[in-house]
Design brief:
Length: 128
């Protein structure tokens, strides 16, 4: 039992949960994902940044191409990170990138360029 749980934890750090599957997804699954992204774009009414990663097994970065165009919110954007950039900012990322956002390098890499300007716009709105 102990060896099994140890094996699971090592696997979980290297790849996505098995429920995500592997790319490329079937046409049906890809259409469902595109529908989810489209609905999010239509419903979103907030400023922010959504980071998507090349190499993620849940979606392809190309699935997000039309998101910014279709998004109903001003100031909401998608930042697509290629595999090399993900590995630069996430020391613990392996085959998949799910843990990137929780790695300290991720925040350090994007705070000044992406998050600080967003926070400043929110602060200005609150002050006025």
């Amino acid at each position: 039992m102990r060896a099994t749980s140890r094996r699971r934890s090592n696997t979980s750090r290297k790849c996505a949960p098995t429920c995500h599957g592997k790319l490329p997804h079937s046409t049906e699954t890809r259409q469902r994902r595109l529908g989810e992204i489209g609905r999010l774009a239509q419903r979103a009414r907030f400023a922010g940044v959504i980071f998507v990663y090349e190499g993620d097994s849940y979606y392809s970065t190309t699935d997000w191409v039309g998101f910014a165009r279709d998004a109903g919110a001003v100031g909401l954007r998608v930042e697509r990170l290629d595999r090399d950039r993900v590995l630069q900012v996430c020391a613990r990322c392996g085959r998949d990138s799910h843990g990137a956002v929780w790695d300290t390098g991720f925040g350090d890499a994007f705070y000044d360029s992406h998050l600080r300007p967003l926070l400043e716009r929110v602060r200005e709105r609150v002050r006025s």
